[in-house]
Design goal:
The complex is a heterodimer of chains A (111) and B (114). With 111 residues, chain A is mostly beta strands. Helix content of chain A is 0%, strand content 53%. The chains are: A mainly beta (111), B mainly beta (114). The interface between A and B is medium-sized, with 23 and 22 residues.
Chain lengths: 111, 114
């Protein structure tokens, strides 16, 4: 079974700073997808970014980028120029037959 | 394009009762997945339906069941409710099933069991 580990339960940074959220996963598969989802206080889960395992190039979406290290089974999320609206739970997820989620990192952006 | 719609949004049930939650996927999406979210266990996969067939199932007791209709709408049912079933139940839809999934979530159904 696939597992996803997020080792940082909570992080807090100042507005405009850059923050990196960590994620590791365990799988014996070679072709899979990885995701970061954001869950603000409204509890609506929002897709932030997606990475296909067969692509070496790291995915980027505006201020959000990932560092995908396939051999190390690591998939970190970098948020640049953080904004107050980035305050949320962030979930790393692994997609194969279905999507498996980590426990989440609560990110707080301080004004 | 309308998003994933879940009903009801909030409900309170008594131990021993049963509950049915409904999910309408994004138009054109044929796969529907259900997740249970609790503070202690996080997001746990319940099951996935694709073209009216259950494709995958998580590690939940048989009290949790689901189905999907020909229009891709899905329902999940929990029978003989227990206090521990109190949770946010999230439905997600995707165009296809399997590893190419990008799943899109609804706003969830908050279930409180008293």
């Amino acid at each position: 079974a696939q597992t996803v580990t997020q080792s940082q339960p909570e992080m807090s940074v100042q507005e405009a700073e850059t923050v990196t959220l960590s994620c590791t996963y365990d799988t014996s598969e070679n072709n899979y997808y990885l995701f970061w989802y954001k869950q603000p206080p409204s509890r609506q889960m929002i897709l932030v970014i997606r990475q296909e395992a067969y692509k070496q190039q790291n995915a980027t979406e505006n201020r959000f980028s990932v560092n995908f290290q396939k051999a190390a089974k690591s998939f970190s999320l970098k948020i640049s120029d953080s904004q107050l609206g980035d305050t949320a739970m962030y979930f790393c997820a692994f997609g194969l037959a279905f999507v498996t989620f980590g426990k989440g990192t609560h990110l707080i952006i301080q004004p | 394009k309308a998003g994933v719609t879940q009903t009801p949004r909030y409900l309170i049930k008594t131990r021993g009762q049963q509950v049915t939650l409904s999910c309408s996927p994004i138009s054109g999406h044929r796969s529907v997945s259900w997740y249970q979210q609790t503070p202690g266990q996080g997001l746990q996969f319940l099951f996935e339906y694709f073209s009216e067939t259950q494709r995958n199932k998580g590690n939940f007791p048989g009290r949790f069941s689901g189905r999907q209709f020909s229009n891709s709408r899905s329902e999940m049912n929990v029978s003989t409710l227990e206090l521990g079933d109190s949770a946010l139940y999230l439905c997600a839809s995707s165009a296809d099933s399997g590893r190419r999934n990008t799943i899109y979530f609804g706003e969830g159904s908050w279930l409180t069991v008293v």
